[in-house]
Specification:
The structure holds three protein chains of three kinds. By secondary structure, chain A is mostly helical. Chain A is 79% helix and 0% strand. Chain A has helices at residues 2-14, 18-33, 42-78, 81-86, 92-126, 128-135, 139-147, 152-177, 182-197, 199-207, 213-225, 235-239, 248-275. The longest helix of chain A has 37 residues, at 42-78. Chain C is of the alpha+beta class. A five-stranded antiparallel sheet of chain C has the order 7-6-9-12-11. A three-stranded antiparallel sheet of chain C has the order 4-5-8, with no helix packed on it. Chain C is globular and about 105 Å long. Chain C starts with a helix and ends with a helix.
């Protein structure tokens, strides 16, 4: 409950943060830019629209997640607002959870806004008939024939995967922020993100007979113990719905559980460190 | 229970990364604060005042020693319901208005919504911010922020308040307001732990004071006792110049005003001085038991510390 | 937080990590299905790994392809192919890229007399095969590769195979991603391929099937405009039935009086000429190749062709019973290196590839064709063929 109060306040604070809003505006701008894309065949244009839209949501989302994650707790310490909070009947773990939760909500709202902009652009560019049903105020038809069919559910799934990836990154940054300074954390979290994003490389190297055995263990450790951001790169089957992607929903659920489990790990570590932190 | 706070052999040392040495911020501090008193916690900047408060609040952890607050260990969730803290130059979430920030803190105490609204309005009224309650904190002046700080420290009707430099940077009027408020808190039966280097404030409101210097407790006692000195002020008229010179040699403080003299001498020298004046045709107008200022004591204490 | 709580939390980390590793073990094999473009493929290079990191792999692929299109319009075909390679690595589902790439390979590398470099046919086939392997469930690339074999390679058997596969698969609406019926011309093209291969009864059968398919499509799509495909199929069927009927009565046989010769004009320059007593518009295929020429086989796509090979193919048009052409490959040393000691020069008239009005005279498979000297029967097709063995110094 206390954590929820802090989360709400964190959200209120974050949505007023200039830098995050700048990123959001840049993101919306870059998604809207794709309205002007016209080249090659229609099919090629659809591919670029989708990949660009999903890519932009992720690209700007990364900035938002990392900037927010590294500063959520240190900003309170820096500005000494934490003194008046922790001297109130707030348990330290409630504070950490509240800050993280607030960040997660902020991230969700940002990703949802970017995603919505992207879907609107997509429908505008690709499905002019969808607009006709909108223009004729036939919302039912719009909803059933365009929003809940065709590619939109897949794209929403893709946006959800981007969100899970960003949430995991946020948890990494928040966890590290309990012991690292903001600058150190920026590089640390970025490094973990990179190491966790090239998971197909780490996996292949850990299994390649050409890799020395010690390095194989090292790669395996990186692959299984570093948060695996690469798990969420499933945009390809979403960009190409014609390609059958067996068990994709099952995979996505497993990836979600993976992300949640890892987020809990990071929060537990963060809480354990923060319990002993001198503020 | 008689003591609001009991501090026993409390020590805090920090490891300096730069010099590689341990810096002792608080050095074996033992101190009791009685219930219902205003306790002045004095010391120059860097003496370890804020470090001590943070340890008492559970924000940082002692290297050794113990403390108990209202019978609880520092940082205990139960004790946090009964105490409050006004940090030095407090910052609050700037995106909130005065009303919202108090509402936020009240929510942290789990005060129900209806009661919260009443409470927040009352406090805003008390600290004189009712007219500005919907203004965002980023547009508040330093004095207004200090008032919000005080209001948030009162939101849970605390039994014990930690006020760290509550008057720093305030204009004289605000200064007085806050001083009055602290006195009122004592009258309501609360204990106030007032950390300050503003000696005049402490002198005017505190029941007992302690002086901390470089982590060490130098003095502690009731203000009355501490200020009550052994010197006596003698005022006289028509004192001959050679006599005045003689007295001056024994005096810590001697000057003339319109032909009248005022000297401060040790108790043991009072009879001799009075006799000397009367025998040479002078007229004693007053013999006043001397009183030292807190500043005297403070400077004296800190200087002693430096010498030792 | 109590020491017990702290220890419990620490202990909780162990099962949590176990769950995470367990999930990761399950995710890894599945993930490969959704993450083509193998970042592990060392050939891709790290700059593309960076694009992958920020989730822009497909964007990079798409934009590279836009760039390739510019090269294409400026005639820089050689620059297009490496981009095709990279794009299809990054995103193996951009099917237009395979199609366009293979088309460039098979058609656009040409000599100074506009003959295409036949050595690039195997890479084009390999590129199509790779594209099909990556996109096996839609008709597009089967049809595209079938078309190359039908139109360029003139391998009708292979074209039939591929068109048959295409004719079993759906298309995808790029706007919605939903499956839909493949275009109606796919079945039509299959029927044409049967006919070209001389399998007239299979062609008739296919046209009948097309009529049924097209009619069903008109009903199901509710698009009356599609009726035109039904009409086309009916016309084609009727015409084929008529042709079959007419061509079954080709008596007496037509003597083609085929003769072919070649004449050295200078280094890498010679004239080919001859006679063929068939209607104007018939074509004689000229093939000049290394004597031991074997078409390269690629297990996977590569544009590293054997540059020592020489193969030249040209079609010689018959006019008033004669054909003649000067072949000048002096400026095309890279395409025709002439590194071998001996060459085979073959002149072939194949009824299968002959236009309709020629087939009217000689039948679908040369049933009505006769010749004193050069008639050969191959796979049931009566064709004309004359070959020369030529030494390298005879050409230089």
């Amino acid at each position: 409950m206390t954590a929820w109060v802090i989360a709400r306040n964190t959200f209120g604070e974050a949505i007023r943060k200039k830098i995050l809003n700048v990123f959001l505006i840049l993101a919306l701008g870059s998604v809207l830019i794709s309205l002007t894309f016209t080249f090659l065949e229609f099919r090629q244009q659809v591919v670029i629209l989708k990949s660009f839209g999903l890519g932009m949501v992720q690209f700007w989302g990364l900035f938002i997640a990392i900037i927010m994650g590294i500063s959520l707790i240190p900003a309170d310490i820096e500005q000494r607002t934490i003194y008046t909070i922790l001297s109130k009947p707030v348990k330290r773990y409630e504070y950490v959870l509240g800050r993280f939760l607030g960040g997660a909500i902020t991230l969700a709202v940002n990703v949802a806004l970017m995603g919505a902009a992207f879907l609107v652009v997509f429908l505008l560019k690709v499905n002019t008939r969808a607009l006709e049903s909108l223009a004729s105020l036939d919302f039912g038809a719009f909803w059933t024939s365009w929003v809940w069919s065709g590619e939109v559910p897949g794209l929403i799934g893709g946006i959800a995967m981007v969100y899970m990836k960003l949430l995991l990154l946020l948890a990494v940054a928040v966890c590290f922020s309990t012991f690292a300074t903001v600058t150190v954390n920026f590089f640390l979290s970025s490094a973990v993100f990179i190491a966790g994003s090239i998971s197909s490389v780490t996996e292949a190297m850990s299994k390649s007979p050409n890799t020395p055995i010690v390095l194989r263990w090292l790669y395996a450790a990186v692959h299984y113990l570093v948060p695996n951001f690469g798990n969420y790169d499933v945009q390809n089957p979403i960009i190409h719905p014609e390609v059958p992607a067996a068990d994709l929903p099952l995979y996505m659920w497993k990836a979600v559980f993976y992300g949640l489990a890892y987020t809990i790990i990071l929060l537990v570590v963060g809480v354990l460190v923060f319990e002993r932190k001198e503020v | 229970m008689e003591n609001a706070i009991e501090i026993c052999d409390l020590t805090k040392s920090f490891h300096s990364v730069l010099t590689g040495e341990d810096v002792i911020a608080v050095d074996h501090l033992t101190l009791d604060i009685h219930r219902g008193e205003i306790f002045g916690f004095l010391g120059p900047n860097g003496a370890g005042k804020t470090t001590t408060i943070k340890m008492l609040l559970g924000l940082i952890f002692p290297t050794s020693g113990t403390a108990s607050i209202l019978g609880y260990p520092p940082g205990d969730i139960e004790v946090k319901r009964k105490i409050s803290y006004l940090p030095e130059s407090p910052y609050f979430y700037e995106h909130l208005s005065g009303y919202e920030v108090l509402d936020f803190y009240a929510t942290l105490f789990g005060i129900p919504a209806a009661e919260r609204k009443k409470k927040v309005d009352e406090l805003l009224d008390l600290v004189g911010l009712s007219d500005n309650k919907h203004k965002r904190l980023r547009h508040y002046s330093k004095g207004m922020l200090q008032r919000i700080g005080l209001a948030q420290a009162l939101i849970n009707d605390p039994d014990l308040l930690f006020l760290d430099e509550p008057t720093s940077g305030l204009d004289p009027i605000a200064h007085l307001d806050i001083r009055d408020m602290i006195l009122r808190l004592r009258d309501e039966g609360r204990t106030v732990f007032l950390s300050s280097h503003q000696l005049s404030d402490v002198e005017m409101v505190c029941d007992r004071v302690s002086i901390l210097d470089r982590g060490k407790l130098m003095r502690v006692g009731s203000l009355k006792e501490m200020l009550a000195g052994k010197s006596v002020e003698i005022r006289a008229e028509r004192v001959r110049d050679d006599v005045f010179e003689k007295i001056k040699a024994h005096s810590s403080d001697a000057f003339t005003v319109d032909g009248a003299i005022r000297v401060r001498v040790e108790q043991s020298f009072v009879n001799e001085t009075v006799q000397m004046i009367m025998q040479t045709g002078g007229e004693i107008t007053a013999v006043i038991p001397g009183k030292r200022t807190l500043e005297d004591i403070f400077i004296e204490t800190v200087r002693e510390g430096t010498v030792s | 937080m109590s020491v017990t709580a702290r220890r419990s939390l620490l202990a909780l980390l162990v099962p949590l990590f176990a769950v995470v590793v367990w999930l990761q073990v399950q995710l890894d094999p599945m993930r490969k299905r959704y993450q083509p473009g193998k970042v592990t493929n060392i050939e891709i290079g790290t700059q593309f790994v960076a694009a992958t990191l920020i989730g822009l792999k497909e964007v990079v692929a798409g934009l590279l392809w836009v760039r390739a299109d510019e090269f294409f319009h400026s005639g820089n075909y050689a620059a297009v192919i490496p981009i095709v390679r990279i794009v299809t690595w990054l995103d193996p589902h951009q099917i237009d890229v395979y199609d366009t790439g293979a088309w460039h390979l098979s058609y656009n590398f040409t000599d100074s007399q506009e003959r295409s470099d036949r050595r690039y046919i195997p890479p084009a086939q390999a590129l199509y095969s790779e594209g099909i392997a990556n996109n096996p469930d839609i008709y597009d690339l089967y049809f595209a590769q079938g078309w190359m074999n039908f139109h360029k390679v003139l391998d009708f058997k292979k074209a039939i195979e591929l068109f048959t596969e295409a004719n079993r698969r759906p298309a995808v609406d790029p706007a919605t991603g939903r499956r839909r019926m493949r275009p109606q011309f796919v079945g039509h093209t299959l029927a044409h391929a049967y006919r070209k291969d001389g399998q007239i009864d299979r062609a008739i059968e296919q046209w009948r099937q097309n009529i049924r398919d097209n009619e069903r499509y008109v009903r199901e799509s509710g698009d009356p405009g599609e009726q035109v495909m039904v009409d086309v199929a009916r016309n084609n069927l009727n015409q084929l039935l008529r042709e079959k009927e007419e061509r079954s009565r080709l008596k007496p046989l037509k003597d083609a009086k085929f003769e072919a010769q070649w004449q050295f004009l200078g280094p890498r320059k010679f004239r080919v000429f001859g006679t063929l007593d068939l209607p104007t518009g018939a074509r004689v295929r000229l093939v000049l190749r290394d004597k031991d020429f074997k078409e390269q086989q690629f297990q996977k796509f590569s544009w590293d062709i054997d540059t020592n090979q020489t193969i030249l193919i040209d079609d010689l048009y018959v006019k008033d019973g004669r054909f003649s052409r000067t072949i000048d490959i002096e400026r095309d040393v890279t395409i025709y290196p002439l590194k071998a000691e001996e060459y085979v020069m073959t002149f072939t008239f194949n009824p299968l590839t002959a236009p309709d009005f020629v087939q009217d005279v000689i039948g679908f498979k040369g049933e009505g064709l006769a010749d004193q000297k050069y008639l050969v029967v191959r796979n049931g097709v009566r064709m004309l063929e004359k070959s020369f063995i030529i030494k390298r110094n005879q050409l230089l």
